[in-house]
Amino acid sequence: MVMRSYRSILALILAMVATVLVSCGSPTVKAPPSYSAEQIVQIQKLASTVEALRDKMPVLADKIQNQNWTDVGTYIHGPMGELRRNVSYLTRELLPQDQKAVSSSATDLFSSLQNIDVAATKGNYQVAVQNYQAAMKDFDDILQLLPKQRGSAVSR
Known about the structure:
By secondary structure, the chain is mainly α. It has a single domain, classed as Four Helix Bundle (Hemerythrin (Met), subunit A) (Up-down Bundle). It is built from 7 helices and 2 strands; from the N terminus they run αααααααββ. A hairpin with a 2-residue loop joins strand 1 (148-150) and strand 2 (153-155). Helix 2 (37-55) runs antiparallel to helix 7 (125-145), helix 4 runs antiparallel to helix 6 (96-122) and helix 5 (83-92) packs antiparallel against helix 6. The termini are far apart. Pfam families: PsbQ.
């Protein structure tokens, strides 16, 4: 009979130990990855090069408006030619979840520029204007998706 009471006490102690171990051993909530201050500075530096190219887009609009098709193609391959490289550098600095969205908008932007070039080759004003508007939207989408430093907090 004494043996039964020892077994009951031992079972109770083991149950309490198991409960404590299970409650203390739960996985901790992992914080989502975030940008360091240095990464934000680098991203903003690269973003400024992309923004500078966006600021040059009205020149392309004037060339399209005047239907100066040779200059349209030259401008896309000249001053806008470094856009792909700059966006690529910028995208590599982003966290994986942000890379996907920026890459998608960048692909759309490059497609719009390519379509403007094709429209210029064919002298198609309407297609050039439509793709110019799409390119401007894609530029804005890319720049809005980038993280920005506000005080000590990182936001989008």
